[in-house]
């Protein structure tokens, strides 16, 4: 132990009475008691020095504890622990390592500290059998309440932990012999320290038998407190280097254990030094800010998330200057488990660590003190040399960890500074690329001006997304741009049985977890596109021209999770309203659209393009609706198992409503009839392929019309109750819809009339031909030119504007969809959910469909007229003269034929 060389012999007052006091342990005498300051009257201002001596008996030690302490004077920093210059007018010196009770021997004893003011000496345990306290004053009056304390004589055996080593006051040899316990307790010679001190224990050499990482054989255990019931700091064995431990409060308990051995061991054991001091970092700055002191360290702390909690980290002693030459580590850890994944956001509100300017710019300016920040979990591998930030001076920084861990190392140098104050925030780490919302919510924005293409995914993909989460993805295109989104992986938890034809989407199937898509317009209105769950991936989608972009939302409930989704986005130049192909049709009776290149397979988009889209917009005449029937449909995809991620056909049966479109892919079974009726005057079909399209046959719409009874003569009444244009009866398409063959047969009540009329016409033709061949008489009457014979079932306006009875193809750029579209007269009638055949049908003339042409037999005033109608070409034989001797006139498309025009007659025979 070091000695203090500047001590002088205690002066002895000659004129004043003695104030010394002695407390001795005697057999049968008191083993404890109290002491206080002397009552002194010193009118001549002479200095007085009183000596208090506490002497224990054999096998005992002395314990002294101060209860009150209020000596006059205000010591400078450090003087309370024995540094000079110390207190001047009044002070107390303590000697706890006194080997002799003689006052003269104090000069040879180590000095234990000088105290004044209100800072009391710590609790003291004598090194040997005695403690001496010297009280000095030069004040006029001293009263007993100036200081008060208690003393106690205690058993010294607990401090005798082995065989004493000669020449050392506190060294012992511990051997595992039969006469000594195999376990023991190691404590400091004057344990414990006082309440405001901490203990530092440094092992200079440590070499115990290593039996494994958990030290099951020989070990040293260190407890943060007075005994082994205190919190365990650590268990150590094997070889330890640079092992330095600190107590959290005023005591450490060290327990050394070794197993009995039959052979000599080569392990050296351990050697350590200890220190009691008030100069170690006080831990208030940790406890007061929800931190947890890491036991065994001087000032290391960990801060654990309480789920999106927030708080502050401070430098030691903040807001006052920090202690020089101190190293403190901070470990700020967010939550990381199956349901939570957090990251740490740190922002400094105050920062002051002196900076050292260097002429060499390559050298760090933070060579005295610094704060190093680690954002990637480097501390888990002890990679403290690979920091992300090194801060000093007055700079502030805002940082976000890459994962759930953020660590800092604060090192104070010779220069003092005020330190730092930083605010930490634990926020959920979604692992989603994109611009995150500043409030830490699961909201991400993708702006074309920042990045033209990229990826997005569900939280934590490819791991399962967390439960009870709502996320939003907003895609904002520039003017004259559109955004395309293509899904590459999709698995959202779903219950229920998805509709195989329509895909697993909609509120009926997706009521637990789901993904929704919207079109975003400039007036801040959103158009709902669909809700998806299960394995049914949304088809590729393009924002329409004039829209701002697209928005995706993900909702998860509190039960069960799945792997989520991964998708790509592309910002490209906006296409026209009909896209890459398609058309805009209105006021038509019917039409057929097919996929590009049909009946061959459609192709993927051109090189460098994210998608290809064909949009057909169909508008019926006022009072009409649209019947759409898919006659053939073969599109890559599987709604039940993987959805329509490569190619999709979307059908809006009412473009003016908020209802989402039907989303179709896969192959239509031959026995199924895909037939849809628009709920308004306009319908829209969009066929979109992505850059991962393989190519297949696609197809599209077909028939009929709505109305319970046909109200005009240019409509045809279908059995299911639809009214369609009369022109559509013989175009080769089932225009009345699936299962309705009424357009390919005549009504049952007309069969008899049709047969009789046909026989009469055939007989008449035979007679006519024979008469023309044999008589060779010239015609007696001027042939009268007749106008075109019009079918009474059409009015002039309808015939002029409607489609002909031949099939008419709607094509645009070589692209269409195989199926048929028809205008339906809806009038003001309510559309029944399943229309029934009409109870009565207006009388109609006999009508025969022959290979796409029609033969119309209409009775005239005298003889039946014959009209062969193929498009607008009419052949009419009319015998309406009053003269029975005159042969019937023959006209074909208003051209007169005489007896010499036999070739034309032969044509007539063939017909």
From TrEMBL:
Positions of region (Disordered): 788-807
Domain CUB: 19-154, 170-277, 299-427, 442-572, 581-700
Disulphide connectivity of cysteines: 718-736
SUPFAM superfamilies in the cross-refs: LDL receptor-like module, Spermadhesin, CUB domain
One Pfam entry name: CUB
Membrane-spanning parts: 752-774
Keywords assigned: Disulfide bond, Membrane, Transmembrane, Transmembrane helix
InterPro entries for the chain: CUB_dom, LDL_receptor-like_sf, LDrepeatLR_classA_rpt, Non-NMDA_GluR_Accessory, Sperma_CUB_dom_sf
Gene3D superfamilies xref list: Low-density Lipoprotein Receptor, Spermadhesin, CUB domain
PROSITE patterns the UniProt entry points to: CUB, LDLRA_2
GO cellular component: plasma membrane
Sequence ranges of Polar residues compositional bias: 794-805
Superkingdom of source: Eukaryota
The protein's name: CUB domain-containing protein
Organism, scientific name: Glossina austeni
